Each structure stands twice: as structure tokens, then as C-alpha cells.
Hints:
The structure is a homodimer of 192-residue chains.
Chain A: H1 8-23, H2 30-36, H3 41-47, H4 51-54, H5 59-71, H6 79-91, H7 96-110, H8 113-136, H9 141-164, H10 173-188
Amino acid sequence: xxxxxxxxxxxxxxxxxxxxxxxxxxxxxxxxxxxxxxxxxxxxxxxxxxxxxxxxxxxxxxxxxxxxxxxxxxxxxxxxxxxxxxxxxxxxxxxxxxxxxxxxxxxxxxxxxxxxxxxxxxxxxxxxxxxxxxxxxxxxxxxxxxxxxxxxxxxxxxxxxxxxxxxxxxxxxxxxxxxxxxxxxxxxxxxx
Amino acid sequence: xxxxxxxxxxxxxxxxxxxxxxxxxxxxxxxxxxxxxxxxxxxxxxxxxxxxxxxxxxxxxxxxxxxxxxxxxxxxxxxxxxxxxxxxxxxxxxxxxxxxxxxxxxxxxxxxxxxxxxxxxxxxxxxxxxxxxxxxxxxxxxxxxxxxxxxxxxxxxxxxxxxxxxxxxxxxxxxxxxxxxxxxxxxxxxxx
Lengths: 192, 192
């Protein structure tokens, strides 16, 4: 048997989120997740160190895509235009599975303090990654921090709206994150 | 012996931060913290459920002060003026002990993922508390979220500058959080 199982990672995530929804996070074991996915426990551990990491394992991938999008934005792009490019880069990588899992993942996270903490640190890490990518473009530190926070907020708001929208809608995630960033930019002129 | 020990809470925090700095968070036990503070373990548990909570126990107090400051800001205050009032309210409650402990607490948090996660959730909670207080004043949701994030960022930046400044400086924390908020407001006009 090959060590590499096609689609194994995604199957494990789907199985875990199903089980967390059905019986709660605490009551779910790695063995149950593997069984539901039709895989062995040792296959699980080739992808994730534990069930906790599973829910947030996409973080580094997402951060990497954001940073790449920001880095390759045109040299004359404003800080927020660069953030918009980062959001497009990460949004384009997310498809129907992510859309469907979103609300269930959020429910699992909302029900468990340990997961909330892990998720909060994930957000901090993603905002920091955006900030560093902007500083690398020559953006001043405070402006970069603010733009990083706006980018993270736009990602969260856009992702929530996308997964709550009518599933037959043609709009992809990039549409929603871009609209959220525009809304935040408009809101910043109303801060006083 | 009275169950209430004057200054016990603060002594426990100071002792814990000293021990975390000297020997690391993982190696420090509740018994050691209590001993260093000249108190018993059972006194420790009257104030904190465990050593992890100790570092972030001030969160609810801080959130409460911010919310109160935002709530009592003049009716015609802009969202950011209300946030500034919240920051003043929380900053005025912090004195020399907080200033001195700040850098050591940050070092302890930076050295431990578990504490980073707890701290990240604390920041999320404080930003959410500010957002809710603004929504209660009639501020639109997106504007309130943005103002809440700005307030949290200003609090962190201001606190860091305060604890790193020359200790003989006359400026209190409110000076630094207010300057940080002004800087963020100026930065928001450079986002593009």
C-alpha cells in the first residue's frame, strides 16, 4: 500500500468536522476520525499531529498564499491594493469543500475554548504574515499593521458571507473578501 | 486567619512572572508561585483556577473598563472618540506595577505557545467587547468592528511603548495609547 493516499487529507478534515458536529469535539477520537474517513490511525498521523491541529492545519498554506499575493502586487500598488491582491490569491485557492465546511468548522470552534484559542492565534499569525509582507514592500510599520488587521477582518467577514450565501450564487470567495475590504475602507472614513 | 489577604492577588502575579522569567513557564508550579508570594496553595486557588489563567486574569477587568469608558463618552462622540474614551478609562487604572510587569509578561507569553493562544483569545475578546459597546451606541457593525480592532491595536502599541519608555518619564499609559490611536488614525489615510 502506498503511503500517499489521494485525497486523504481532505477526507480526514471532512470526517472530523462531521464528527465534531454530531458528537462534539471532546468526545471525538483520532481513531473515529480515521475510521469515518476509511483510513488508518497511522495515516491520520502522517497528516496531522493531533485532532486539534486538524482544524487549523490550513493556516500556513493560507498565510503563504496571502504573502505571495502581496509580494507580487504591482510596485505602485497602495498598501490596501496589495492586501486585496493577497486576499485574491488566497480566495482563489478555496473551493466548494471549503465553503461547505466553513459554518460547521465555526460551530465546532465556537463550542470549544481550546479551539477558540488556537483559532485566535491563527488569526494573529495571519495578520502578522500580511504585515511582514507589507513591510517588505516598504510600507511603514503602523500602516502595515493596520492594513494587515483590515485584511484579516476582510477575510473573516468575506468567508462568513460566502459560506452563508445562497449556494447557487455564482460569486466565489474572492468576490466576498473584495467586497468586505471595500466596506472596511469605506467604514474607515466614518471613524471620526 | 482571614480568607482575604490584602494584596495577595498582585503578589501572586508578581511572583509568577518572576518565576516564569527565571525558570520558564512549564517548569513553574502553583506551589512555587504561592511560596514565592509568601502564601499557601489554597490561597492561590482562591484567586486563580490555574497558573495559565493568572497571566490573563486581568482581561475581564480591562474589558469592563473599556466598555464603561465607551458607554459614558458624550453622545456626539465619533466612534474613534468613544474608543479613545475607553482607552483612557482602562489606561488610568494601570500603574507602575503593570508597567514593570509588562515586558516580563510578554517574554513569558512569547516563550510558550499555550500562553500565546490564551493571549490571542484575550485580544479577540477585548476587541469584541469594544465592538459591542460601540454597536450599543448606534455605530454600524462594520465601522464598530474596525474601531474595535483599532482600539485593541492602540492599546497593545501604547502599552508596549509605555513599558519600554524611560521609567522616569512623566507620561502615563493614557498618553501612549492616545498617541498610538492618533498614529493609527493617520495611518488609515495612507492605506490607499
